[in-house]
Amino acid sequence: MEVLDGQGLIKAIDYAAAYLEMNKEEVNKLNVFPVPDGDTGTNMSLTIHSAARSARSVDERTVSAVAKSISSGALMGARGNSGVILSQLLRGFYEGCKERKTLSVSQLAVCMKSSADMAYKAVIKPTEGTILTVAREMATFATSNFEKYQQVDAFLEKIVQAGEEALERTPEMLPVLKEAGVVDAGGKGLIYIYKGFLAALRGEVLEQKDIQGAEKDVKKALKSADAADIRFLYCTEAMIQGDAGKAPTLRTKLLPMGDSMVVVGDEDIIKVHIHTNEPGKVLSQCLTYGELLDIKIENMKLQHENTMVHEESYKKQKPEKRSKYAFVAVAAGEGIEQIFRDIGVQNIIKGGQTMNPSTQDFLDEIESINADVIYLLPNNKNIILAANQAKEVSAEHIEVIPTKTIPQGISAVLAFSEESDVKENMDTFAHAIEKVKTGQVTFSVRDTTIDKKTIKKGNIIGINDRQGIIAVSNSTEKAALELLAGMVDEETELIYVYYGEDTSQKEAQKLHKKLEKIYSDQDVVLQYGGQRLYYYIISVE
Q1: 170, 252: one domain
Q2: Which residues contact 534 (CB under 8 A, 6 or more apart)?
Q3: 465 and 528: one domain?
Q4: Which of 31, 252, 321, 491 has its CA 20 to 30 A from that of 215?
Q5: Percent of the chain predicted with pLDDT > 90
């Protein structure tokens, strides 16, 4: 193949997307930290599938038109830092082939150089030993050797080889990769993309079922998993005519049956609210304390699905009344979402550790808001680039508050002042974020060594957002205690503990009591977060 045309480029991006999707779990496992939410492969796969879908819709089949559509699709579908960088690589590729109907070997070299240059410009502080290095080394080989080749496929084969060699060197450039015994995940994802590209150029047969299967897997990943966040299916409420003084005893009896529980006594009435999977048992227990006056049981999953249908129908409609400001927060977990709503954040994008929202997700949410200023809270370091990209694309006045954790996001919102202007509030947000230390307790997904700590698969690990992994244990409680010991100092006033969906209320309350004894000079607050994979998210202020 001496030239690549637009139709060939569409096939190439389809193959690239399928190759990465089929190998994304290998890329996900290359996280430096052995945490269970490795998502580099997922983010890159979702991003390039968005690019591939966009390419298929193009009427004009020149290389330039197809590359432009690929760039646009990747921009809107970009998820996570790796996805945003990939979108910039594809944008640069387009810039290198503007006005081109086909690509020759020399023109492909120009595109590779333009691709790498654009990605480097998009990152404020480029780090070597990452996807950027792999892209640059491939471009350097291309621009230095294109005169030796006539066939585009033979040329690309050597470019990919140069990329693989660069990938193998990434641990020598980034000590954390070397210590963890992995190559860069983003660089590995890029190699799979170009291997798919090469397979298409060579005319290799990738079964249509493989392409369709990859697309199906992507659609499955994109489906909201919010309903799965609902651990307890039935919202159960009852009013009991009986001795209000027995409310504390009833509360203790109901505690193992669910969460979000409220049991209060008022004169001769006991009011009960609980989320449970056993409403019958709850009501039977209530009956032992008096006569049931009123009962309400709602299926929260069904209620959630109906709400999602309603929101889907009306999500593009803006409120008629314009507000001075609005907040958009990224959050995952029923409890975390409710906390944001309770402090005045009405616009929630569901996502976080296991599913980073795309640039398009931010734009869709922005589209539904009518406000003078819209503040975006990414609440995850891997989502900030997508939020900034949405800011660049949107015509609205957008401010991105660079929150890297959920506690930072909560603290920023609480510090907001309606009387202050945008600049003053942005300064206030920065100060509030700086005062918050965040800890997370999760489990290791592989054997590794980090900061001279030997970690085995299945170990419970405590991660401090400022120091990395500081606790390794076989107990979630011990890991949480060790983690906090390294976070609390003489200036600490508040400790918030948000427990996740895999931590029982009983477990969390046991930890809470211990923390209250240890840190008697601080206020220790326990709240249900409902986050996945992380047993505890801890905020120290």
Answers
A1: no
A2: 353, 440, 441, 442, 500
A3: yes
A4: 31
A5: 65
> Could you tell me if 242 and 187 lie in one domain?
no
Q: Could you give the number of structural domains in the chain?
A: 4
pLDDT at site 261: 67
Q: Which domain holds residue 278?
A: 228-303
Q: Which of 171, 177, 184, 186 is nearest to 449 (CA)?
A: 177
Strand-pair partners of 269: 241, 266
Phi-psi region of 103 (alpha: psi -120 to 50; beta: other; left: phi over 0): beta
Residue 457 lies in a domain: yes
Q: What is the mean pLDDT of the chain?
A: 88
d(CA 276, CA 299): 10
Percentage of residues in the chain with pLDDT exceeding 70? 90
* CA atoms of 199 and 305, how far apart (whole Å): 42
Tokens of 293: 């006056």
Pair 541, 512: CB distance under 8 Å: no
Show Cβ contacts of residue 289 under 8 Å, excluding neighbours closer than 6 positions. 240, 242, 243, 246, 250, 270
More confident call, 474 vs 351: 474
What is the model's pLDDT at position 302? 64
Q: How confident is the model at residue 311 (pLDDT cuts 50, 70, 90)?
A: very low
What confidence score (pLDDT) does residue 220 get?
52
Looking at the fold, whether 156 and 8 belong to one and the same domain comes out as yes
Domain boundary (393, 409, 435) is at: 435
Q: Among the three residues 265, 280, 303, which one is the final residue of a domain in this structure?
A: 303
Average pLDDT of span 310-319: 54
Of 120-124, 180-184, 252-256, 418-422, which one has max mean pLDDT?
418-422
Clarify whether residues 182 and 240 are in a common domain.
no
Residues 284 and 397 in one domain: no
pLDDT of amino acid 246: 87
